[in-house]
Amino acid sequence: MGKKEVAAVLEEMALLLELTGANPFKVRAYEAGARAVLTYPGDLAQAVRQGELEQVKGIGKSLAGVIAELVDRGEAALHQDLKGKIPPGLLQLLEVPGLGPKKARVLFEQLQIASLGELEYACQENRLISLPGFGAKTQEKIKAGLESRKRYAGLFRLGDLLPAAEAAAAEVRRAPGILRAEVTGAVRRRLEVAADISLVGAAAHPEQALRDLGRLPGLNPLKVQAPGLGQATLPQGMPVKVTLVTPEAFGAAYLADTGNDAHFQALQQRARDHQLSLTSQGLFAGTELQASGEEETIYARLGLPLIPPELREGLGEMDAAAQGRLPRLVTPEEIRGCFHVHSYYSDGVNSLEELIDGARRRHWDFLGLSDHSQSAYYAGGLKAPDLERQRQEVEARRLEHPNLTLFWGIESDILTDGSLDYPDEVLGRFDFVIASVHSQFGLPREAMTRRLLAAMANPHCTMLGHAGGRLLLARDPYEYDLEAVLEFAGRHQVIMEINASPFRLDLDWQALRRAKELGILISINPDAHSLEGLDDVNYGVMTARKGWLGPKDVLNTYPPTEIAKLLRRRLE
Fold it and tell me: Are 375 and 382 in contact (CB under 8 A)?
């Protein structure tokens, strides 16, 4: 096991210990151990071999033994023992908003609730109201959380779907008789969430090739639903549909299966206007198949340029293409760096030096460091001494790495009244300030809107972070007037963030089209808490493309000297 996997097990052990009523000090020891593993700068396996773990702050003798088991064997006896003491459904309760380990233990001990179904029934019978630490409001919150889970059932985030889809496509390409295989559907269009994965492949003998696919480990069992159409479930639980056609029809099948329905139906109407017919089997003039092996050929035959798949939502892209108004979309290669990066000064796991090295390995020109502010105590928010210590290190790193521009910023909590988390004289020391809401999500729509506008009115607010506060498939956006926020940002030159974490993707692609109309500059921010998190910029680029953004709309494409001016423009 690597660091992330070991830390995840230790975190789960802390939860299991709390569920069993273990000593709180022991629970916290495992939580601290998880953090220590994540932030350990060296090779974990080597530390285990050389017996160095007990010298690491936060790791004692017994914890070091558990970590050694995980590294060497991939499991730990204590972890397995704890899991055996807990009903499997009890951990699922912790996924419901309003339920932590202590409340889950009360539910189990008082009402013998050990599954989501039992919890829902208990809520309907009002059995939670009289329990210690609960009450009517808590029960209503739990009921709302259960309803959210139902709405999200069967859906998956793009961040999980895309790598699984690409791996499945790669496996299909290796199968006998397969000439080509590509990801289609909602994943190709880069929707934030979707229910399944779709693949289209080309084979000289599609039906035989489909039968052969059923022998692949990752697609077994693959059920043939119709000639050239099969369905399976990936090990991750995601349904996958595989369509195989001849090479001559691949472009039409690729186009039809990518969708969406409105876009393809508009193409079919355009084909009829040209005395042609378009189906998933090809483009036809009467009964004669036209060149249909590539999407681009079909679009060209219909008098259109190739429309990027991200834009194929039936929302004006056809008219824009016909009139030559399609935007030139931003590409990953144009990204020169990013903002909203957390270090181990707050709740990130990497040092400044490691983050700088990560930026350089990605061939970036700049990096924007922004740890949490003081009110985010749960995330190690920075107090005044921490700020000064970090400022001094930033200055030292700048001297050591003159070819990388290091911007020093902060992610300032937006307090309930809309004020930012430090006095203006402190905020003025940073190169940039990302203002974000991290608490009190339940304010009424008008109050939340006033809160956001008040924060944005502070000239030290450079960017508004994850404007809607959503967590995909976990938490709906809070209520606020998006149009009012966007109009204010446009008038007052507030940069808006695409929070590129695949758990957020906020602003969403639909709001980005309006932001572009208002001339708002967008920053693609990974909200990275690790080196791997820097790569989430790619999901932000996907969202930006889906929102019709070009390179000039995206702050990350500008050179550092110009970025420095843009970050300070509200203060001039």
Answer: no
Task: List, for residues 323-376, the tens digit of each pLDDT value.
Answer: 999 999 999 999 999 999 999 999 888 999 999 999 999 999 999 999 999 999
Q: How far is Cα 540 from Cα 506, in angstroms, rounded to an integer?
A: 9
Answer yes or no: do 113 and 217 share one domain. no
Taking only the tens place, the pLDDT of each residue in 62-103 is 899 999 999 999 899 999 999 888 887 888 888 887 788 888
Residues 81, 186, single domain; the answer is no
DSSP output for 536-561: GHHHHHHHHHHTT--GGGBGGGS-HH
Q: Where are the beta strands (DSSP E) in 185-236?
A: 193-194, 197-203, 223-226, 229-233
In this structure, are 526 and 378 located in the same domain? yes
Of 293, 322, 351, the residue at which a domain comes to its end is 322
Largest CA distance in the chain: 78
Clarify whether residues 534 and 511 are in a common domain.
yes
Higher local confidence (pLDDT), 479 or 108: 479
Let me know: does 245 contact 228? Beta carbons within 8 Å. Answer: yes
60: domain range?
3-152
In angstroms, rounded to a whole number, what is the distance separating the alpha carbons of residues 501 and 507?
Answer: 11
Helical H segments across 229-332, by residue range: 250-258, 261-273, 295-301, 317-322
- Residue 403 to residue 158: CA distance in whole angstroms: 34
Where does the pLDDT of residue 534 fall: very low under 50, low under 70, confident under 90, or very high at 90 and above?
A: very high
Going from the C-alpha of 437 to that of each of 372, 412, 414, 434, the distances in angstroms are: 11, 9, 5, 10
Q: How many structural domains compose the chain?
A: 3
Q: Which of 545, 91, 475 shows the shortest CA–CA distance to 329? A: 545
CA-wise closest residue to 278 among 251, 304, 243, 306: 251
Phi, psi of 66 (to 5 degrees): -65, -45
Strand order in the sheet with 282-285: 277-279, 282-285, 288-289
Are 465 and 494 within 8 A, CB to CB? Answer: no
The answer, yes or no, to whether residue 445 has pLDDT greater than 90, is: yes
Going by C-alpha positions, the residue among 3, 107, 110 that lies closest to residue 47 is 3
Of 322, 353, 379, the residue at which a domain comes to its end is 322
